[in-house]
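Inputs:
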Amino acid sequence: MPIQYYIALASCLFCIGVVGVLTRRNAIIIFMCIELMLNAANLLLVAFSKMEYATAIANKTNLTAGTDAQLFVFFIMVVAAAEVSVGLAIIVMMYRNIHSVDVNFLNRLKH
Amino acid sequence: MSIDEILFWFLSALALFSAIMVLLSKNPVHSVLWLIVVFFAISGHYLLLNAQFLAIVNIIVYAGAIMVLFLFVIMLINLNTETERQQNIWMKFFGVISGGLLLWIFISASRSAYDVANKTAMLKEGDVGLIQNLGKVLFNEYALPFEISSILFLSAMVGAVVIGKKD
Amino acid sequence: MNDLIYLVPLFPLIGFLINGLFRKPLSKSAISVIGSGVILISFIVSIILFFDIKEHGGTIVNYYNFISVEGFKIPFAFQIDQLSIIFLLIITGVGFLIHLYSTSYMHEESTDHFGRYFSYLNLFVFSMLLLVMGANYVIMFIGWEGVGLCSYLLIGYWFKNDSYNYAAKKAFVMNRIGDVGFLLAIFWILKDFGTANYTEVFAKASTLPVSDATAITLLLFVGAVGKSAQIPLYTWLPDAMAGPTPVSALIHAATMVTAGIYMIARSNVLYSLSHISQDVVAIIGLATAVLAATIALYQNDIKKVLAYSTVSQLGFMFLALGVGAYTTGVFHVMTHAFFKALLFLGAGSVIHAMGGEQDITKMGGLSKKLPVTSWTFIIGVLAISGFPFTSGFISKDEILMATYAYSPLLFWFAVFAAILTAIYMFRLMMLVFFGGFRGTHEQAHHLHESPSALLIPLIVLAVLSLIGGFIQLPEVYGGHDFLNQFLAPVVPAVTHEGAGVATKDYYMLGGTIVGLIIIFAATRKFFAVSQFEGRYTGFKKILADKWYIDELYDTIIVKPLNSLAGFLKSVVEKSGIDAVVNGTGRFVNYSSRQIRLLQSGQVGNYILFMVLSITVLFLVFWNQEIIVQFLQKIF
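Outputs:
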């Protein structure tokens, strides 16, 4: 598939994630939209790895081109997992304190 | 239209539709479920691109572990009966507008970019995504980041425990 | 000799600085010694310079380039020639006597103010010396401004009194009006000649078209009118009597007011080129002489009579300059310095004896208690009235002769003014020193002769008033016109024809003697009295109220200016400028409050702005060339 289609798909998913972050007030939903954005990026990276492989094959060069991008995706998943665990712990603590997960309550930065 | 293309379009449509449903659902549990569908669609894309390892890892880690974690938290704070108050209508409007702007920028930027003109992503073939190739590169060149990521996990675990303690 | 020149103004400057800066730790006697001593030193140096100039003629000493721009240079230079040495002697000599007088007269002031007084006096002498010693019009202007400033400072010396401050302001403002004319004249001179130095200007003066010469000389005369109190800018001088009496003697009788005379005498080359301005000078001088003399007839304050007398005598001097008798004008400056300073200091002695009283309706018969004061005062009165062979007689007769040669009509008006002078001075003398005492009992007890520091200057000045005229005795009496010959290289003299001169001189002498006897008898009858009300009605009241000129100026000039200032303050300043300035502040306040609302504390808002910024950045980065072109088109 032409790489443009993958770029378009990933951009759409990313922007849907952005809209979700801006629009929703529930902290957990916002967090989930962040995961959505990360996944869009992952998808695009994998597509780029295959694109590179395709060009390498066409030029008869390195046969293992493109592994870097997929390993990058692997590490992104690692980081996402760690981040989710810490983030959810914070949300739980927030709920314990104010008994709500509405982000509009967190406006202490105003003062 | 070969089977690949049909599959591609179907998976793309599924992913987009599910993502939008994540946004629009009132019930958080529904949002989680729709997100899982998105993850499945994306794993399908990975399989289509012959990135087998990543597809499986995506399912196991994301859909399996992370989403389950989300569900735990939602159950913990008993969110499924609650509906959130409506966001300010202006904020929603501006949010959508800015998201749309961003999308437009990305797409128009990438359409005229030189590097990605006339390139294709190869489907279904290629040994790149095979686990032995990935493993070879991972443990030869990226061994250090691999080990450090274990420390990252350790710190995240410790952080989560410390933050979540009831004192 | 050139090395000594700078000492003359240097010592008064040092006196000013020491007395001004260190007056708190110094004692009164130290301040007096320093203040008077520096003037004495300047006087001695002036005498040395005088003898040198008598032998060798004038000299110009250049110090440094004061202003040096493309097109003209103005050096800081002193020109000591015959004219300026006469003035130097007058300033330092009479100045020294007045300083001596002040040490006793101002004795009651605190040390602080005493020192302030002497520092101002020294600064004044310094500025006046600069004025007469300058080698070009710009240095003269520096001294001109300096004496105006010191006049303001000294008139308002007792600054706690508001009306004195008002008088000082009035003097300064009227001086300033004259200064505008002077400045315009300097600019014109610079434009026409490319230099302001006397020697160069007078050398090239004959090349000047008459219209330019007329304009320059008229503008210079405007400056002189302001400084030397002629019509229309004379009203400040009677009000300036608010200052201490020695100040009135020095500044407003002997020196500052004669600065205008000096300027015109110095510029005689220019004035000789333009008949119109000479006529203007003569007529205004004469008109002032007559007007001031009429006002002086009915004044009740001893110092005001003398002030108007000064204005009138200055009118005489300008009349002399206007008819072309420049040396006569300078001669009358000299004699006037003697007798007017004498009269003012004598008035100061009288005021001191009367415990501060200045109203002559309360005086009378003081000659018994104050012998020295009264005799010196009488000598002064005789001199100013033109009693034969006093200095005043010789100089005034010379003016009258020169006026007659110019125009008989002006001559008879001048004679009228001279008669009025004699009348009001004799009136003053009779009211103050003869007849019965009209004051209170405490004042009668308080009457005593003044201390010697006040009397010595009176005696010296009286002697000078008697014999000072002999340097220019007309030939018919056996004299020789020393002054005319001395000044001849710098200032032309008026020439007298042969035989007719002697006859005219005898007529003058006879007429003067007869006139004075009549006036003496009349005033003795009317004014040597023990009851004198001093209230006037009808025409006399108009004269006593100074022809309402002050009120006229008030209505025409002062009140409209005040209302204009009030309008500017309330409308333009308050509603206009203040609104703009305050409005800017208020606007900044308001907009900052609005912008602060951006910081809502909501993370969602922040992320929104982040996303928007990213889009904008993308757009800008992507369309760089277009944006740069657009900006270049604007700027």
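Remarks. The mean pLDDT of chain C is 84. The beta strands of chain C are 59-69, 72-80.
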